[in-house]
């Protein structure tokens, strides 16, 4: 994505938080890192774009619940593509970053 090699661990932590918890927790951690001066300006901008979007595990449940209510006969089909949709959403955010 263009993050300096020395800052990859920190940005990786942020992406992990976004994926497995949610983007709000990741942005809070990014704010802490900014206050502590851990990341360069370039890495902050890249991380900001990488964290935007709702491609995380909890969003899969929200989407399945919402779309499943609209199309109850297609729930199995929705469940099959949900993880791939989350990965595609993450990739879109990473391409923007």
UniProtKB/TrEMBL annotation:
The chain crosses the membrane at residues 44-70. Residues 1-97 form the Concentrative nucleoside transporter C-terminal domain. It holds the Pfam family Nucleos_tra2_C. One of its GO terms (molecular function) is nucleoside:sodium symporter activity. Keywords: Membrane, Transmembrane, Transmembrane helix. GO terms for cellular component: plasma membrane. This is Concentrative nucleoside transporter C-terminal domain-containing protein. It comes from Cherax quadricarinatus.
């Amino acid at each position: 994505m263009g993050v300096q090699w020395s800052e990859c661990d920190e940005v990786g932590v942020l992406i992990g938080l976004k994926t497995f918890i949610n983007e709000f927790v990741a942005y809070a951690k990014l704010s802490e890192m900014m206050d502590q001066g851990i990341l360069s300006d370039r890495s902050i901008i890249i991380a900001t774009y990488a964290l935007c979007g709702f491609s995380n595990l909890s969003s899969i449940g929200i989407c399945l619940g919402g779309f499943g209510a609209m199309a109850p006969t297609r729930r199995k089909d929705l469940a099959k593509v949900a993880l791939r949709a989350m990965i595609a959403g993450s990739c879109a955010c990473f391409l923007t970053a």
